[in-house]
From TrEMBL, chain A:
InterPro entries: BolA, BolA-like_sf. GO terms for biological process: [4Fe-4S] cluster assembly. Pfam families: BolA. The lineage of its organism: Eukaryota, Fungi, Dikarya, Ascomycota, Saccharomycotina. Belongs to the BolA/IbaG family. It comes from the Eukaryota. This is Bola-like protein. SUPFAM superfamilies: BolA-like. GO terms for cellular component: mitochondrial matrix.
From TrEMBL, chain B:
It comes from Suhomyces tanzawaensis NRRL Y-17324. One of its GO terms (cellular component) is cytosol. Homodimer. Heterodimer with FRA2. Keywords: 2Fe-2S, Iron, Iron-sulfur, Metal-binding, Redox-active center. This is Glutaredoxin.
Length: 110, 241
């Protein structure tokens, strides 16, 4: 009854390496039924540009994830799950901000 | 080479100087010819540069915020005089206003050999006890506990409510004001040890961060969702002490 293949909506036809890693990590750990990712980095590029940030193209993302892994967890805990999965990206790859919507299938069905 | 203040003439010159040796401590001073306090700070900045003449690792750059508006916009300088201390492309500290002592302390804090206890070189001005050269993790955590409980609702943001330095911080301030919530705030751009320490303390890598009654609540997204689910989210959270 449940779909084993998640519905994934990428930001564009040609997502960058960080976006691909994000998708990869979230799909394998959270086994979401739905994952949508949008890249907002261009909206913030003028901040980061000359401050020496090397990553201005994949620094800010908006993601929506629907997964049963979120059941029983409050908002901060859900976001922390994602933050922990992407710790390396935050610390070493120039990922700067994530806007998140984290839901379970039951919540989405409401 | 500390010693002389370099007055920036162009963005190209600025990029060249800042990229030449990123490991240097770079002190940026934003000023305008018409702002009164800048006149005093001009000479303070010059004197400080001279006092660091023997230090090859500090660079003093002076920027006319009006003429080089692109650079001021880049660093989101909203008022002058304004100081920014940078090393390795990281902003260590930002200071707004005309308090020479604050700037001297910050300069000394960051120009002594990194992460060592009491430096061998005596600082140019006697540092205040409130600006320790080296803060232990325990002392930092104590300071963070004090900060997060400084008010029933504490917002850790980039910039200040009247001058937010990031879109997400601006939005969260707007939400708090919309709900007529009284809150305290801390500008994490002004203190790099709080900025990094709070990421560990809250187990949260981003800002803004909201604390209610000393408990971490979340960032912008979470607060938005909490309000969607419960209009009286703030009142209820404060009561649940």
């Amino acid at each position: 009854m449940s779909t084993s293949v998640p519905e994934i909506v990428k930001s564009s036809e040609n997502p960058g390496p960080i976006e691909l890693t994000i998708i990869d990590k979230l799909v394998s750990s959270l086994k979401p039924s739905y994952l949508k990712i949008a890249n907002d980095s261009h909206k913030h590029a003028h901040h980061a540009g000359l401050r020496g940030a090397s990553n201005v193209t994949e620094s800010h993302f908006r993601i929506e994830v629907v997964s049963s892994e979120f059941e029983g967890k409050n908002m901060p805990s859900r976001h922390r799950v994602v933050y922990q999965l992407l710790d390396d990206e935050f610390k070493n790859k120039g990922l700067h901000a994530l806007q998140m919507k984290t839901k379970t299938q039951a919540e989405v069905a409401k | 080479m500390g010693g002389t203040v370099i007055e920036i003439e162009s963005e190209t010159q600025f990029s060249e100087l800042t990229n030449l040796d990123p490991s240097k401590l770079i002190a940026l001073y934003f000023h305008t010819p018409w702002a009164g306090p800048c006149k005093t700070m001009n000479s303070v900045f010059k004197t400080l540069a001279e006092s660091k003449a023997s230090d090859p690792n500090v660079l003093f750059l002076s920027i006319n915020a009006d003429e080089l508006s692109e650079i001021s916009e880049l660093f989101e300088v909203s008022a002058v005089p304004y100081f920014i201390l940078i090393r390795n492309s990281t902003i260590l500290k930002e200071l707004s206003g005309a308090d020479p002592k604050e700037f001297i302390n910050a300069l000394n804090q960051f120009s002594s050999p990194q992460t060592q206890a009491a430096p061998a070189v005596a600082p140019a001005a006697a540092p205040e006890p409130s600006a320790p050269e080296e803060e232990s993790e325990e002392a930092l955590n104590q300071r963070l506990t004090k900060l997060t409980t400084a008010a029933p609702i504490m917002l850790f943001m980039k910039g200040s409510p009247s001058s937010p330095q990031c879109g997400f911080s601006r939005q969260l301030v707007a939400i708090l004001r919309e709900h007529q919530v009284r809150f305290g705030f801390f500008d994490i751009l002004k203190d790099d040890s709080v900025r990094q320490g709070l990421k560990k303390f809250s187990d949260w890598p981003t800002f803004p961060q909201l604390y209610i009654n000393g408990e971490f609540q979340g960032g912008l997204d979470i607060i938005k969702e909490s309000i969607e689910e419960d209009e009286s989210f703030f009142e209820n959270a404060i009561k649940a002490a």
